[in-house]
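Repro:
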Amino acid sequence: MKTRRAACNCGRLEIVCKGEPVRISMCHCLECQRRTGAVFASQAWFARQQTTISGNSTQFTRQSDANRSVSFRFCPLCGSTVYWEADAIPGHIAVAVGAFADPVFPAPTYSGFEARRHRWVDPLLTVAVHHSD
């Protein structure tokens, strides 16, 4: 069984994920754009029992663009968001793909909130993914 480690920038908050993610997605919502400072967020979803979390985190909870609660966990020292939980996918934890620092991490197969997608991102979507608004 494959084991992957994701961590914050300073390494004090980490999550170890065993097995394959149940979904890898990218989100184009405006809140994810603000949170990451990028034009979309990329996350790997794992069942909670696939994960082991260590280190201290600070939590920030907000409503998603779909009006559901999302609770983000980030390092209180360096500020990196490492993982989060969302009412939309109970029993699962989303891990920021970039926190794995693994350039061969599998590509997303789901793309959400595409109505807010930056148009220059279109060439990236030539990969076979499920598209939704």
